[in-house]
Amino acid sequence: MSTKSSSKGSKNEGKRDFLIISTYTMAGIGAASVAWPLIDQMNPAADTLALASTEVDLSSLEEGQAITVTWRGKPVFVRHRTPEEIKLAKEVSLDDMRHPETDEERVPNEKFIVLVGVCTHLGCVPLGQKSGDVKGQYGGWFCPCHGSHYDHSGRIRKGPAPTNLEVPSYKFLSDNVIKIG
Amino acid sequence: MSKSKFKNPVVKWIDHRLPVFSFMDHELNHYPTPKNLNYFWNFGSLAGFALVTMIVTGIVLSMNYTAHVDYAFDSVERIMRDVNHGWLIRYIHMNGASFFFIVVYIHIFRGLYYGSYKAPRELLWILGVLILLLMMATAFMGYVLPWGQMSFWGATVITNLFSAIPLVGESIVTWLWGGFSVDNSTLNRFFSLHFVLPFVIVGVVILHLVALHRFGSNNPIGIDVKGTQDTVPFSPYYTIKDLFGLSVFLSFFAAAVFFFPNFMGHPDNYIEANPMVTPAHIVPEWYFLPFYAILRAIPDKLGGVLFMFGAIAVLFILPWLDRSSVRSSQFRPIYKIFFWILLFDCILLGYLGAMPAEGIYVLLSRIATAYYFFHFLILFPLLPYIEKTKPLPISISEPILGGAATASAFATREKK
User: What's the CA gap between B258 and B92, in Å, rounded?
Assistant: First the structure.
């Protein structure tokens, strides 16, 4: 490798560059494909994903009552709204809302509202499910951690939360049974 | 060393205050290494690689494992079936233990053949034996964690070894168990220790490397390096050689992980632990079999335990048992023969450890055990008085460049 003509040398340098780059590329691909299983094992496992949906029977839920069910480890609020609450939720003006959404967009069956019971600010569970709970200025839910007020449609009306309470994907299997997830 | 050897200003700034780059440059780049090392010198870095692999996969497994008698077995099955790539990670960890021992055993026999334990490398060797001992403890406790039948009964048998100690034996066993049998407390403490001991091993490995770099590697001829003409810089010569060896190692390792993952395991460990039923044949993992054979060869409970631990204890004092000042077996015609007998003896002990303790196997175990201790306690101290060693070359370079008759093999190999 010492005494070679310059033209031969540059040709070999090109070869060497190719070998070095392709070696490093293959080593990089190899390292990444070894790293991936070690990282991906922290994602939800097959048994966790298998439990990702929950069925809820609403037949015993009276008007004005609410229940909290667990879905994917989080509370889901289901409330049987009274006619006054429905009326309030539908008639309010969207103009000064932080996250304007109509009640129809959020609640397919106007009697039953289904929400993920996690405040969109920093993840606390808002009050308002039990009859004695503080429900906030708008009568829906109130987060005690940092004072977010939600209305009868779970929309943010006052306080630090940036968006409305999330509506999980769910569907009515029959008139009284919903499947969340 | 001049401070301006680094071009990058950030590296230069840091190195002036915290000379980690100088250290790495000195120990991994310029580090003068004998130029005649053969492939048996790859196994040190391979052992280091195996240790890192075990720690990384182990940490990841612990994220998905539950150390409780009611859930341990199921949590391992969940890793195998449900956790993303869990089967791969567990098979790497499981087979990694076996491969770690394969590599370390070859590393140890390399040291025995080339006399790497002799002055001034006694502490280097002792630290190595300490690593082996820690590895055994770690591997044993790790094997208990899946909480299968072999886990449970292996734990029961091995912890019961301590009951052979006179007077306090029973109390020690109760203390080890944290109860009156191997149970949840035992599993919990084994998990805790199995997690922490590998980091203790890392610490001892660092000491092992500090001791290694004090005098540098031994070499196949076993004579000291006389000057720079006998060495090459570690990088790129041995970094490339180690990486090549690593890729060969990984080929075998991947073959085991993907095609024969349970070859070195035992099917009974896929049955959940049952404290009421002992499996018909309980056998330790293959890497403990030679020691297990020694344990069973001695027809006395305490004696068996003492001889089994003695088999490792003799390794600690080996640098003083071997009275020969010649390191490499290449120049010890008689010892060279006995070296191969010792290797065969250890493999035979391994085979006998897997066989039932009856008939001819008992007799053979006793002969093999006797030879093992004869080799260390009698042969090593006395052989130098009888053996006429071959003349040593003047330097590492001499057999290659000087064309001395003693090492014509090297000369022909080096001629391109």
Answer: 9
